[in-house]
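Now for today's protein.

===
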Amino acid sequence: MAWKPVMNFNLHRYLSCKAIAGMAGDGLYRTSFFMAFANIMSAGCGFFFWIIAARLYALEQVGLATALISSLALVALFSTLGFDSSIIRFLPLEDKGKVISTSFFVTTGASIIFGGICILLMMIMTPSMPFWQDPGNSLAFILVAALNSIAVMGGYAFVADRKADHYFLQNLLQAIRIPALVPLAFLGVFGIFGAIGLGYLTAALYSLTKIQLSICRIRPQADREFIRKSLRFSSLNYLSSLLYAAPTLMMPILVLSLLDEAEAAKYYIAFALGTLVLIIPSSFGTSLFVEGSHGNSLKKSAFRAGGASLMIMLPAVLVLFFYGDQLLGLLRGEYVEGFGLLKIIALSSFPVACYSLFIPIQNVRMRVESIVKLNALRCILLLGLSYVMVNRYGILGAGYAWMITYMVIVIWVGWVALKEKWI
């Protein structure tokens, strides 16, 4: 069936005080705002976490800790196995206990396996790193990876069940990692890693407790029937997630290899600041996925999500475009040289928002193949163009590659919309 949007979209509805006040009671907006606040708060806590860590710990300890945490992020990425999307798509359709229990059981087991693989690879690739020589550290790494998996899936369960306020509180509790840096400082690099682990432990315990009390009973078992039903959807989303995350994880390494450490730092900070705006369309996209999975009108939800995203994004983009140099200067003067890149990333937020809303629409419509193709195109374009343009234009080239990639994606989305008669 063709998906045809309603065109009587009245912008003044979203600009009126009455409409804004009424957003709190609307499922789409409520979920979106709680997710946006949670992600913004998490980003802010991360910023303060590293400021305090830099003052309490030696430079070498901070450097090793960032490597450990990056390894943990890769383990988390590979451990989802697509259940992060399946739990949202199937929770309204299947038995909640089976969906959540299976998602927890499978992804936690996967995190233990991938955590062990990561340790073996690190011991082979970095034999001089003393951290991996202690079996206790390796066990701690696997434990933290498992806690991270539980916390992540718990967050998706809250969002899928329209309890985004619990998702917000879960992220708030992880802020305990900031004060934990002080008493754990005597442990060195393990103090930083331990503080992160304490945050995941708190979030995991909160998730398990709240889910048991307000959603369903969690059992340590996997339901084969649910796995069979969701296998195709989960596996394709898993492949799509890997294709999506790979370029972002590889870009800092690419810039470092083509330029130098200083340029890589400028790129990382400017990119991180510029992409903060993307929390907004990403949050609305996830909320659109939730509402569509619960049977709400997809076309109306899409226009509402798009209108609200634009209304909130516009002032944020303008601030970054005109005052981003001052924000970069708050860190160190050298980072101001990344202002040009920051402006490009900020302006590209609008085509990225188009992508962020297209993905949940296709997930609700079970058109996951198109998402895989789109993310494969994005991966090839972004890495290929970045390699060519960073060589020629420095870190600005990474911005050009980012913008061109998403302009091509917008053309793709427009072609799909015409082909399937959305408009």
Observations:
- Residues 1-9, 11-21 have pLDDT under 50 and may be disordered.
- DSSP finds 18 helices and no strands in the chain.
- The first helix runs from residue 11 to 15.
- The chain has two domains: 1-35+243-423, 57-222.
